Input
Amino acid sequence: MATTGTGARADTVSIGGTYSGQFDMIVNGQVGSYGGGNVGGSSGVSGGNAMTFAAFFCADLFTDANLNTTYSATYNQSGVIGGHAVVAAGQIAWLIDNIARDLTTQAEYQGLQGLIWELESPGVVQFDTNDNSASAVAYYHAYMTALGSNTAPVSDVYWVNPVNGLGQYAYQGFVAATHQQLTAAPEPASLAMLGAGLAGLAGLRRRGQNQA
Output
């Protein structure tokens, strides 16, 4: 069976039943509506070990996977989706490891998912800051500011590749984290900018819950 990435194993991934809801992305200059992570209730089995995911975000805008569905899958910790190294994988790993676990609203999910897709496809994909909700846009900017030049080892998270019966990558890939960090948490100072950036968003969060 084909694998993706060094040390990957063929196992299973169960896609959960809740997601970000639809929001707008600009792809090759065209506005389209997409849905992504956080996909709540997702879990997997890798190397015989069962995992539940605290963060489960789409890592490939150009493929699809169904909610409430279990797929055969390969897992790696080398930043590979669909047989290719993910662009900005280190930045995405930092976002998943330091921000994604704590999000609870659709506006937060949309802002982070949009930023992840944008990082993966620079110059091709953009988060639509004109048509999305004000709260989602505010979170998108806050996460971009918090990210800055930060990166994390791509091995800090799981890169999940659902595969078909032939072991071929055929569905949407995901980047995921369990409830326990794979490496030590960063020093509090490294997250100071994020705290400052989100401090003024409490009102936006409350409004965003009605908008998203």
